[in-house]
């Protein structure tokens, strides 16, 4: 039978487009339910509860109102809710994944716990970090970046941050707001202070 | 089984900047992506709960009080890895325009009717063999503002997860022999012709249901190879 996969190779990416909201992030605005929310919090989750928020801007500094962001992270003990992580069991219902669409002013927010330390392939500790995937109209493939936390001493020795030119590292580090469990990180898709994106 | 994700496989994807697609001009990074080794963070990925997919979520024709207008179709296939192995239990989400080419999204205001019996969103989970199946309505082509007389070929948007966070894929499934292919900058943002062909479904007569629905087959190939390829062959 005819088949669209005759040769080796992956299915190419295409943009998420401008109209994903009713399917992927309806949040009560459409007749469809949400598979995911912008929170990883579960009743049994342990660790420091934090909010990570910010805005997304394009190359003209204009807010991007139609981005979709997804995060993936370890729990506060540095364990992933995936059987491929053989080390230990995470909080029973914690899944470590969340999704958020930007609003008309480009704002996003995630409610989560600050992740623990995860080893790199050589067993060296990585500073607490959250993986972030950025999807949007005009973006033919999503972009991968990481969110680090400004009050973590481990950032100085983090093996992935070390790959990033020193003058660009700040684009990956969310800043803790004084007296609040809130970290802010704006994303810039293009320009002089463009967010660092990784080739993974 | 341990999977590896060679970065070379990403060559199938469009480049971030594809100037024919105007929206990419201000939203593509100017600076090169920074290469890095995959750590446990990249090599793991989300597992979904029972509440993620409900019974019937894969049938977009039964979500309202009546049946939607249009050509009823079955879209099915396998989620596969780069070795051709089925990817089990992967979430597949779809969204699409109705048979007139109109999206239910509030930002789509082009003069084609909405269908009160069609939202256009569905989801399912691939089974133990990687197989998935949807019942829906064939979406219409629709105009957009990219250039004079621009029309998108009919397509269904797909979002797929796979074994890890780096297998995440959002793409569009097209229909065979669409006359709009040569003029669509999004379709043509994929540089390699063979890779473009992997976004086009095949008409599947064998699984077409007599008197009921045409069938299209669409296999989705995600990144991922066996780290020790000899053990299974």
The topology string of helices and strands of chain A comes to HEEEEEEEEEEEE
Query: What oligomeric state do these chains adopt?
Result: heterodimer
- The total count of strands of chain B amounts to 14
Predict the CATH topology of chain B.
Protocatechuate 3,4-Dioxygenase, subunit A
Number of domains of chain A: 1
Structural class of chain A, please?
Answer: mainly beta
CATH homologous superfamily caption of chain B? Aromatic compound dioxygenase
Nearest-integer average pLDDT of chain A: 95
What does this protein look like?
Chain A: This is Protocatechuate 3,4-dioxygenase subunit alpha. The complex is a heterodimer of chains A (200) and B (233). Chain A is mainly β. Chain A has a single domain (34-188), classed as Aromatic compound dioxygenase (Protocatechuate 3,4-Dioxygenase, subunit A, Sandwich), CATH 2.60.130.10. Chain A is 2% helix and 28% strand. Chain A contains 1 helix and 12 strands. In chain A, strands 1, 2, 3, 4, 7, 8, 9, 10 and 11 form a 9-stranded mixed β-sheet that branches. In chain A, strands 5-6 form a two-stranded antiparallel sheet. Chain B has 233 residues and is mostly beta strands. Chain B has one domain (3-26, 48-232): Aromatic compound dioxygenase (Protocatechuate 3,4-Dioxygenase, subunit A), CATH 2.60.130.10. Chain B contains 2 helices and 14 strands; from the N terminus they run ββαββββββββαββββ. Chain B has helices at residues 40-43, 193-197, and strands at residues 3-4, 34-35, 72-80, 91-96, 121-125, 131-137, 142-144, 150-152, 155-160, 169-174, 202-203, 214-217, 220-221, 225-226. In chain B, the strands form 4 sheets. In chain B, strands 3, 6, 11, 12 and 13 form a 5-stranded mixed β-sheet that branches. The model of chain B has no long low-confidence stretch (mean pLDDT 96). At the A-B interface, helix 1, strand 5, strand 7 and strand 12 of A face strand 2, helix 1, strand 4, strand 5 and strand 10 of B.
